[in-house]
Amino acid sequence: MPRRGVGYERELAKILWERGWAVIRGPASGGGSRSRVQPDLVAVRGGVVLVFEIKKARGETVYLDPGQVLGLLEWARRAGGDAWIALRLVGKGWRFHRADSLEHTRRGGFKISRPGGGLKLRDLLTLYGGGVRRIDSYLEG
Q1: What is the pTM of this model?
Q2: So which residues are the catalytic ones?
Q3: How far is CA 75 from CA 38, 51, 80, 82, 132, in A?
Q4: Mean pLDDT of residues grouped by 10 in the chain (141 residues)?
């Protein structure tokens, strides 16, 4: 299991690639100061564009930099896609939170109070038409 951020980015990229998405990791991801915000990961399939900011979480509230979130939302808007915060919960797998539905902090930032309350990977894939088919669906047609 990866311990560093880049390892989690690669982990999610591999999962999405294996499920039919074209995936690229942001070239400035983890590169320190940037002239413009870029997502950690971009996944594209059949005209659907998903952009991700990836964070590690242990189950407590996750605080997010407002510039990072607003930049991610702007990037997604320009690409015609959806922006997601992908949390790699230690010992619990992935959870996904829509970047346009985050809670606001009193200081103008963003937070996720219930990191485990987001969508599971299978739910995210189902939302975009790439979920696992139920076995009985093969019998219906």
Answers
A1: 0.84
A2: 29
A3: 7, 8, 9, 9, 29
A4: 72 95 78 68 95 91 94 96 95 94 94 94 90 52 49
